[in-house]
User: Which sequence fits this backbone?
């Protein structure tokens, strides 16, 4: 008896839980309610409301990913170089919020940002004008950054600590300045971590409907909200499935990126 | 000077990460219903939370689903690693690529595709469909944690055990399993965490009567005042904190022993 047979349950779950469902969603996406073949559901992405939602989602996901990267990379560098005795504990502090339910974390920002929320009370108390970003795209970006920052910090930090110190010292010895070392040595060597961090935050931000619903107050319509709406109140499942198929393009792109830059899974969070 | 700037940078990020969580903690002890005024310290919301049947049911569902999903995914995942390792390189990398699909796929697509399939095949949405969905998305995490341990194994030790008269099963449990144990544990814990944290896939695959904490929070967050949810956040944060500290201490001790 071959050992290969042990992969049977895995293959069964792959088939029933991933491959068949993807076939089913594709089937719904390319048929209409009566079951006739059509491309309308996929073409629908280019119509006004849907296109706007997709562009807004792309923009907000892009902005929040860039902000996460800009915060996480210097942080990773500081943590890598820090001579704090409890380095492990410092890293732990920065990724701990990852384990808290993300809806509760998002709710926390709603509490903070509300019109009469804590932040505005504090601002009012010290005589500053109040902040009105709840129910705007800015609040949604804030929520995305907050939710996915730990997922950016961890792979970048993991990639950074793997860089051989001697390589960096060699670059300095050969006369490179800090900027050159960063550009020519540290950043290229941390690409697997950066790519992994980007894919872990970008796709969820792009397709979210919970964050935009809670912090956008129903006024920020992302593509995720439109798809979710089709399956709950809108009940045009074929349209929802068609729009979901379009989202898969971005997933394929991120798979290709991972394949290209992170072959060995170095940037993996595990 | 540079050191000070670095310190300020770290402090600002810590503030950003923890201000929201600590705000909820403080508010959870507020006597009044409004969050705009401090009306006195009280455990009122904790009492209400623990006597609230919907919240307790959702908590129970979350934990049992996470446990069973992680356990099933661990068994299936470890078996998959054994099987995949016996395959030719070409087949193995094909299946490992397949294994990446649920990991990289957007939750909304995974959730909707599962929901559509369940309904198409006449399976009504309930606790079981949520559990099935969770097992499906947990398996890849187990495989990714266990596979590297398998690759590091000395194949000869297993064969040596067989030569010395051990049955394959005995040799596996006595020789291979202890070596891959760290991968199995981290795969289980990762699966458990992912299951507890999942909202989107549960949202689409649950039936009307089933709530997990995520779906409960989502449905209540729009209603308005919810100090019981603040209390819940505090309890969850405290539990996570204690568990992670314990896990850290235990794994540190293990490493010391080995060193």
Assistant:
């Amino acid at each position: 008896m071959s050992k290969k047979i042990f992969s049977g349950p895995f293959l069964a779950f792959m088939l029933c839980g991933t491959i068949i469902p993807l076939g089913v969603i594709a089937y719904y996406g390319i048929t209409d309610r009566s079951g006739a073949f059509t491309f309308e559901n996929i073409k629908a992405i280019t119509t006004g409301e849907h296109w706007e939602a997709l562009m807004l989602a792309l923009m907000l996901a892009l902005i929040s990913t860039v902000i996460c990267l800009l915060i996480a990379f210097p942080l990773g560098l500081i943590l890598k170089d820090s001579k704090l005795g409890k380095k492990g504990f410092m890293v732990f502090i920065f990724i701990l919020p990852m384990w808290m339910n993300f809806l509760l974390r998002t709710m926390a920002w709603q509490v903070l940002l509300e019109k009469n929320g804590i932040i505005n009370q504090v601002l009012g108390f010290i005589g500053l004008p109040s902040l009105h970003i709840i129910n705007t795209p800015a609040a949604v970006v804030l929520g995305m950054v907050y939710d996915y920052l730990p997922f950016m910090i961890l792979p970048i930090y993991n990639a950074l600590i793997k860089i051989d110190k001697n390589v960096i010292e060699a670059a300095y010895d050969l006369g490179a300045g800090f900027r050159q070392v960063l550009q020519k040595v540290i950043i290229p060597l941390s690409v697997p971590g950066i790519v992994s961090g980007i894919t872990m935050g970008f796709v969820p931000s792009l397709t979210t409907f919970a964050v935009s619903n809670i912090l956008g107050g129903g006024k920020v319509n992302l593509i995720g909200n439109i798809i979710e709406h089709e399956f709950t109140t809108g009940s045009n499942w074929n349209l929802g499935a068609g729009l979901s198929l379009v989202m898969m393009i971005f997933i394929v792109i991120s798979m290709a990126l991972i394949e290209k830059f992170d072959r060995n899974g170095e940037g993996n969070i595990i | 000077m540079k050191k000070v700037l670095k310190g300020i940078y770290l402090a600002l990020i810590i503030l950003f990460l923890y201000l929201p969580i600590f705000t909820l903690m403080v508010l959870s002890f507020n006597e009044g219903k409004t969050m705009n005024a401090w009306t006195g310290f009280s455990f009122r919301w904790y009492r209400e939370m623990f006597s609230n049947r919907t919240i307790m049911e959702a908590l129970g569902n979350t934990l049992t689903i996470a446990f069973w999903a992680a356990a099933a995914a661990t068994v299936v995942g470890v078996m998959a690693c054994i099987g995949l390792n016996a395959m030719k390189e070409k087949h193995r990398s094909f299946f490992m690529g397949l294994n990446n699909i649920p990991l990289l796929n957007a939750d909304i697509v995974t959730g909707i595709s599962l929901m559509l399939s369940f309904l198409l095949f006449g399976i009504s949405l309930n606790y079981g469909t949520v559990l099935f969905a969770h097992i499906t998305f947990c398996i890849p995490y187990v495989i990714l944690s266990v596979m590297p341990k398998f690759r590091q194994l000395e194949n000869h030790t297993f064969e040596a055990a067989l030569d010395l008269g051990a049955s394959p099963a005995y040799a596996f449990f006595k020789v291979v399993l202890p070596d891959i144990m760290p991968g199995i544990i981290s795969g289980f814990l990762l699966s458990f965490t992912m299951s507890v944290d999942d909202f989107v896939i549960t949202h689409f695959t649950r039936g009307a009567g089933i709530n997990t904490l995520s779906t409960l929070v989502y449905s209540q967050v729009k209603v308005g005042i919810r100090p019981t949810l603040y209390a819940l956040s505090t309890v969850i944060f405290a539990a996570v904190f204690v568990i992670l500290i314990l896990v850290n201490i235990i794994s540190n001790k293990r490493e010391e022993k080995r060193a």
